[in-house]
Amino acid sequence: MKEKLVRRKVMKILALSVGLGVAAAFSAFCFDWPQDAVSSDSFYSYFGQLRGGKISSSLIFSDCSPVKAADDGMILAVIAEHDEDMGWFESTLGNAVIMEHSDSVMSVYANLDGENMQDSVYDFSEVKKGTVFALSGNSGWQQGTSCLEFQVIDLLQKSAVNPRLVMPHEGREQPLEVGKISAVSKNGTVYPVWNQMVLPSGQYYFYRTRQKSAVPYKTSFFVNGALVERIIYDRLKQHEMKLCVAGNSFYSSEQVYPSADMQLLSKVMLSSGKNIITVSLNDILGAEKTSEFVIYVK
After folding, report:
1. Which of 101, 176, 186, 198 could pair with 73 as two cysteines, CB 3.0-4.6 Å apart?
2. pLDDT in tens, 12-66
3. Residue 184's CB: how many other CB atoms inside 10 A?
């Protein structure tokens, strides 16, 4: 009975939190890897990427291996893939373990192999960093060969935090490419952008070609040398009941990824005259990729 009550309590917390920046406390807060370290360019899916029509709040590993506590903490709940509490609605996380750490931070270890869970997880006791408690598997609602799904949640900020900000980095990053740029007017007209083109004055949403796996840590959009908007994928917050990334506004998944091939760069008002547009992408280590073009607005 105690286990069920704890599980229900945590599921309520997750309903409020998982779908919801990084607080200043995170600058000194560091997790270890939740499984053996792999090259930073080899994850199955990255935080902030489009996944299942939504902005992903998880980091998903490609290799199945032993799962360990990323930091000292307390086990709050163990969620089973097939649970009598869930009725007809099975856990989308598959088999999962949820831990609470200092500074009101939670970590979620999902998509675990239920047959290899350590009995000790059901004690709901304290766990030391590096303690192995399960093997990753394929129990969650995922596709392909994905394995451990790892989340970090800041309960005070009501944010899902990019796990890569609090984990050590290993090896190279996936290369970023600006790709093709398109501008969408207020009435929905789509303009493929090229250098020295002409557009009517007005408000536009600018998009880049979405990469299938790599996602920038931040995107910056400049007009005539002035920063117009910067979107940072360090956290996701809940705004108007939707999972959003922050720029000048809170953008939902439908706005950031209006299609599988597009990723939002900026919402901007273009005035008459010559407009020098600069697009800058940065990975989590600060490496930059830029592209510049001129748009004449009439």
Report:
1. 101
2. 434 333 333 343 344 444 899 999 998 999 998 899 999 888 999 999 998 889 9
3. 18
The tokens describing 19, both together, are: 């779908």
Which amino acid, one-letter code, is at 209? T
Residue 253 is classified by DSSP as H
Q: For residue 142, give both structure tokens.
A: 């995922």
Contacts of 2 (CB under 8 A, 6+ apart): 124
Contact residues for 134 (Cβ-Cβ < 8 A; gap 6+): 66, 67, 95, 97, 109, 112, 113, 116, 117, 118, 121
CB 281 within 8 A of CB 289: yes
pLDDT (tens digit per residue) in 85-126: 544 344 578 889 999 998 889 999 998 987 778 888 888 889
- Amino acid symbol at 239: H
Tokens of 194: 């090229």
The dihedral through the CA atoms of 51, 249, 230, 210 has a sign that is: positive
C-alpha–C-alpha distance, residues 9 and 1, integer Å: 12
CB–CB of 182/258 below 8 Å? no
> What secondary structure does DSSP assign to 5-18, as a single string?
HHHHHHHHHHHHHT
Residue 240's alpha-carbon distances to 176, 237, 250, in angstroms, are 31, 10, 9
Residue 190 burial (CB count, 10 A): 11
Give how far Cα 13 sits from Cα of 10, 44, 106, 155, Å. 5, 27, 10, 8
CA-based radius of gyration for the chain = 21
Strand, helix or coil for residue 47: coil
Give the Cα separation of 113 and 115 in Å (integer): 6
End-to-end CA distance of the chain: 69
- The Cα–Cα gap between 237 and 292 comes to 31
Can you tell me which residue has the tokens 């400049």? 222
Side-chain half-sphere exposure of 89, counting CA atoms within 13 A: 2
